[in-house]
Protein: Amidohydrolase-related domain-containing protein
Organism: marine metagenome
Amino acid sequence: MPVIDSHLHLFRSVSESYPRTIYPGLAEADLDVPAEKLITLMESAGVDKAIVVPLGPEDHYLAEIVKQ
């Protein structure tokens, strides 16, 4: 049976290119969680698939990743 992570977020640290909502204690401005890190963590944990949830109403990084 496949292992699926049903709720996670991908985002870059806050910058002009990647503005985003800041959530104190959860998604600080300098926290960086790129797709490459997710894939590495998924492989090491035996997770087969993941459902990515936007961090806020405007998620420039996630939109860029989806296009790839």
About this structure: Residues 4-67 form one domain. The CA atoms of residues 6 and 51 lie 5 Å apart. The two ends are 27 Å apart (CA to CA).
